[in-house]
Design brief:
single chain, two-stranded parallel ribbon, two-stranded antiparallel sheet, 4 strands
Length: 73
């Protein structure tokens, strides 16, 4: 949707080499995208595995599954 601001907090360290390659391609596609802020988590959060999202500052979701091709074929 146009006009939506998106903030992404991502991990630079990904265990699987396949997932790492896919993640890098995704991160690269987000760099410079209008309305998208991409930041990397500090290294001391290397193994924080949870995923969460907030929509419009009002709705939150939480998941422990990976958002990668290996988990969502």
């Amino acid at each position: 949707k146009r006009g939506v601001a998106v903030s992404v907090l991502a991990s630079k360290k990904i265990v699987s080499s396949y997932d790492s390659k896919e993640a890098k391609a995704c991160y690269d596609s987000l760099k410079g995208a209008p309305g998208v802020a991409l930041r990397y988590a500090p290294s001391y959060y290397t193994y924080a595995h949870r995923k969460f999202w907030v929509v419009d500052g009002a709705v939150a979701g939480l998941s422990t599954g990976n958002w990668s091709p290996s988990d969502y074929p």
